[in-house]
Specification:
Blueprint (H helix, E strand, L loop, with lengths): L7 E6 L4 H15 L3 E7 L1 H9 L9 E5 L23 H9 L2 H11 L3 E4 L4 H9 L4 E5 L6 H6 L3 E4 L3 H15 L2 E4 L10 H12 L19 H14 L2
Parallel strand pairs: 1-2, 1-4, 2-3, 4-5, 5-6, 6-7
Helix pairs in contact: 4-5
């Protein structure tokens, strides 16, 4: 595991879901433009996906760091992610993630970052960083109130939104938390595979205006065949 190459170093540890890793990664890219060096920490199976989202320009400023989760017959390494995880294994993954604290502490001891950035469900990350006198701040990738994580965030909380969209709510949360709430924008992912993007656009160009409905339930919602059919039936009835 290499040490940092210069600049202020930030170790990021998002939750093991793509819709959490993606905004963390986009924020990481923006921070590198301000001379930050980023350690992006996750499980091996997630880092394989993350690497595909990084262009060559970030190879020296964003360093991927593997977090080792305890595993057994119920949770082999390819299930150390929410992507494709059977729903009944979600509690086991969350428990394994929390039990990875010793591995995370070894990473902190080795890299000694200037700052740790953690996700909504990880108060143990802040506690681990604090034990080594490393400040940590919360990055909320969605607009929810997570009391313990908010309390542990050092002075400031980052949130994936903009003041133009949620200015009043940002001020209200700042008052409740007695901390500065810093919006970081929508953090839209840059295009890595232009061919794939062109295919999507070709599909849309063939459609009439307002004829396509985009539906997303996040990476941790598991719909049965009956659920999908019910949603499709509802869309038909709504004439959307």
């Amino acid at each position: 595991m290499e040490t940092r190459r210069g600049g202020t170093s930030v170790l990021m540890l998002p939750w093991l879901a793509h819709d959490h890793m993606s905004p963390f990664l986009e924020l990481a890219k923006r921070l590198t433009e301000k001379n930050f060096h980023i350690y992006f920490c996750s499980t091996k199976v997630n880092l394989i996906s993350v690497e595909k989202m990084l262009s060559q320009k970030y190879s020296h400023s964003i360093q991927l760091v593997e977090l080792h989760l305890p595993f057994g017959p119920k949770l082999p390494p390819h299930y150390h992610t929410t992507n494709g995880l059977p729903s009944h294994l979600m509690p086991i993954l969350k428990m394994a993630f929390e039990k990875s604290k010793p591995s995370f502490l070894r990473i902190l001891n080795t890299l000694n970052p200037d700052l740790v950035m953690f996700d909504f469900n990880q108060p143990w990350v802040s506690t681990a960083a604090s034990s080594l006198n490393i400040p940590s701040i919360l990055f909320l990738t969605f607009g929810d109130l997570v009391c313990e994580s908010i309390r542990l965030s050092r002075d400031v909380i980052l949130i994936k939104t903009s003041r133009e969209i949620e200015g009043e709510y940002i001020d209200y949360l700042s008052m409740l938390a007695n901390k500065k709430i810093q919006p970081v924008g929508p953090l839209v992912q840059e295009i890595v595979d232009e061919d794939e993007d062109i295919e999507v656009m070709r599909f849309l160009w063939k459609k009439d205006e307002y004829s396509v409905v985009y539906i997303s339930f996040g990476s941790e919602i598991f719909l049965s065949k009956e659920d999908r059919e019910e949603i499709a039936h509802g869309l038909e009835l709504s004439a959307a």
